Amino acid sequence: MEYTIQKLASLAGVSTRTLRYYDEIGILKPARINSSGYRIYGQEEVNTLQQILFYRELGVGLDSIKDIVTAPSFDGAKALREHREKLLEKREQLDLLISNVDKTIALTEGRITMSDKEKFEGFKKKMVEDNEKKYGKEIREKYGKEKVEASNAKVMNMTQEQYEEVTALAEQIHNTLAEAFKTGDPASELAQKAADLHKQWLTYYWKDYSKEAHAGLAQMYVDDERFTAYYDKEQPGTAVFLRDAIHIYTGKKI
Amino acid sequence: MEYTIQKLASLAGVSTRTLRYYDEIGILKPARINSSGYRIYGQEEVNTLQQILFYRELGVGLDSIKDIVTAPSFDGAKALREHREKLLEKREQLDLLISNVDKTIALTEGRITMSDKEKFEGFKKKMVEDNEKKYGKEIREKYGKEKVEASNAKVMNMTQEQYEEVTALAEQIHNTLAEAFKTGDPASELAQKAADLHKQWLTYYWKDYSKEAHAGLAQMYVDDERFTAYYDKEQPGTAVFLRDAIHIYTGKKI
DNA sequence: ATTGACCTTAACGTTGCGTAAAGGTGTATC
DNA sequence: GATACACCTTTACGCAACGTTAAGGTCAAT
């Protein structure tokens, strides 16, 4: 089956301009040019176009797509993994932004005040990247990324019941921690209960529990901005508070 | 507090070019220009910039933002709550995109390591269409999307060899189970062999094996009619039989 | 008086096309 | 054979939201 430019365009749901552009940038050349100079596309081009549109749908840039579709032995997976990393970063950005919006809402309601610096935390991608460069690697080396990855694997090993238990536990921790935070004392009964719940919660993710690892994780909550953002979402300072409570609970310091 | 252009830029995490551009298009004028022609920004501009960046993050065009920030009567808190909703939506979309990319990585890696292209096509079709379109959404809701994603992540790491092993194993389970079912005794040697094979098969999908989780999954086969339908396809009662065999095998009951 | 870190405007480059403009081709119909 | 009309072609400017030189003025310190 051969297609003129418009046939292919309507088949694929793109404009003829797009196809000419793809020709221009060398991403999709027609199979041949007929005697009148018309672009004629064949089956192979249809397949390639499908590939292109697929990657485009994923948000991959056309020059990256070019590498994928032109180089026969190109590691598409690698490109996708890189793309994935970008998406994950973007999502972290979003999470920070959301917490910033929450704060700002609180601000307009007069509950808290924000410094100029804090106002922009959600946008400070650079800071996040710097922080990642500065601490990220170190943290991963220190506490081991195996643990992080193993915990992911453990999650899928859970039954539905276990899954429900663990989510219930997470909520319980959240509530207890919020209450404990009001006391301001990480050695308080409530805070220690939160630490204990946190230990129980951990056992759902870790195969073996040790006080050192628990204390280490607590420190990570403070060192790693992403964790901090999560715990501090509703009450800034919660991450530090939780760390202190856990350090008291475990009797270990990092 | 007064800021020069670079001070404000680094505070907000944008470039000076951006601030000049915003000045140029009339979206953010400096509070004043000093005697040397320098742009000087004040507190009000900090707040306005924050607003601008919020909306920008949402993908709103700058000309629309202009209307928003220059409009005299403007319910800030209400707008922020709407912001928040949109941000959450955006994160949902991002999550979807990420999981799509994950899947595509799985498929791409499969294509590289798998010699048989057709098998790959079948695999792709099964994974993407069956798993996602049929079960994806519902299962995600029921058992938690983390688990589904973790499972996808594991599948995407399989090599061709592993894929062949796991498909061979699946067939072996199927045959053994069919044979065992005829005995009618889930404690029989054959049934226990099927359970053992099922355990081995599971290790291809789960990083850690536990008897509890195995037993839990077996129960899930009975509880979830989609799994039941799959196992009972040729012999009604097979799902229950398999569950019983696994419960005997693991010595656990759910 | 000379760095060097600031600031200024001006203007072209980028991505992935949309949108003319100006013209050639193919086929049907009058 | 003229005309109409739907195709096709290349060329080229426009868009958003800045990035990136380039060419030059300003400020504080040495």
Question: Can you walk me through this structure?
Answer:
2 copies of one chain form a homodimer. The first copy, chain A, is mainly alpha-helical. Chain A has 3 domains: 5-70, Multidrug-efflux Transporter Regulator, Chain: A, Domain 2 (Orthogonal Bundle); 76-123; 125-250, Antibiotic binding domain of TipA-like multidrug resistance regulators (Globin-like, Orthogonal Bundle), CATH 1.10.490.50. Chain A has helices at residues 5-12, 16-24, 43-57, 62-70, 76-108, 116-119, 125-143, 145-156, 160-183, 189-203, 211-223, 225-231, 238-250; strands at 32-33, 39-40. In chain A, helix 1 packs across helix 2 (16-24) and helix 3 crosses helix 4. Chain A is elongated. At the A-B interface, helix 5, helix 6, helix 7, helix 8 and helix 9 of A face helix 3, helix 5, helix 7 and helix 10 of B. Chain B binds a DNA duplex (30 and 30 nucleotides) through helix 2.
Please give the most extensive interface between any two protein chains, plus how many residues each contributes.
A-B, 49 and 56 residues
Q: What's the helix-strand series of chain A?
A: HHEEHHHHHHHHHHH
Q: Based on CA inertia axes, which overall geometry of chain A fits?
A: elongated
CATH superfamily name of the largest domain in chain A? Antibiotic binding domain of TipA-like multidrug resistance regulators
Task: Give me the CATH fold name of the largest domain in chain A.
Answer: Globin-like
The portion of residues assigned to helices of chain A is over 70%
Strand content of chain A: under 5%
Task: Quickly name the level 1 CATH class of the largest domain in chain A.
Answer: Mainly Alpha
The assigned structural class of chain A equals mainly alpha
Question: What's the quaternary structure here?
Answer: homodimer
Tell me the total number of β-strands of chain A: 2
Number of domains of chain A: 3
Ends distance of chain A: 68 Å
Helix count of chain A?
13
Radius of gyration of chain A: 26 Å
Largest sheet features of chain A: 2 strands, antiparallel
Strand order of the largest sheet of chain A: 1-2
Instruction: Tell me, rounded to a whole number, the average pLDDT of chain A.
Output: 73
CATH architecture term of the largest domain in chain A: Orthogonal Bundle
Give the low-pLDDT segments of chain A: 122-160
